[in-house]
Write a structure and sequence with these properties.
By secondary structure, this protein is α+β, with helices and mostly antiparallel strands. The protein has one domain: Gcn5-related N-acetyltransferase (GNAT) (Aminopeptidase, 3-Layer(aba) Sandwich), CATH 3.40.630.30. The protein has four helices and five strands, in the order E-H-H-E-E-E-H-E-H. Strand 4, helix 3 and strand 5 form a beta-alpha-beta unit. The longest helix is centred in the first third of the chain and has 19 residues.
């Protein structure tokens, strides 16, 4: 399993994986998700992330998946928390249960710690039991819960 940091010429592959995540996850769990956003805005957005030193963009070999992490700005209400956010992650369905997700998360955690993070966060849709189980298995625990009424 090869996990590498994205270079500018990898943006199209990153965008393809992110667009699939929008369709698979957001599209099935959020009735308001604009699944067309990646096609309209994604190229510039992801190109900017790849160039941003406060962001980590990873690709797993052979189109197996991606991970996007970023350092959060300091929060004056929680001055001792240095937070890294796992913003986006997808493993291609045919590559799940092969260790791809674990390799991506391990690389993110190493990067976060190397950048001084003492708190790593991720959000998942409440209905996505598989994501919850995966993240729990990698040491993430519930901290805040957002309740929504539509």
């Amino acid at each position: 399993m090869i996990v590498s940091e994205c270079r500018p010429d990898d943006v199209s592959e990153l965008l393809a994986s992110a667009a699939a995540l929008f369709a698979e996850d957001g599209g099935s769990h959020d009735p308001f998700m604009d699944t067309g956003w990646p096609a309209r805005e994604g190229q510039a957005y992801y190109a900017g992330l790849v160039e941003d030193p406060q962001c980590l963009c990873l690709l797993a070999d052979g189109g197996a998946g991606h991970l996007i992490g970023r350092l959060r700005r300091p929060d004056p209400l929680r001055p001792d928390a240095v937070t890294a956010v796992l913003e986006s992650m997808r493993v291609a369905p045919e590559r799940r249960r092969e260790g791809v997700g674990g390799a991506l998360v391990d690389r993110f955690l190493d990067w976060a710690r190397a950048h001084g993070a003492n708190e790593m966060t991720v959000q998942a849709y409440a209905q996505n039991a598989g994501a919850f189980a995966f993240y729990r298995a990698h040491g993430f625990r519930p901290f805040l819960v957002a309740l929504t009424r539509t």
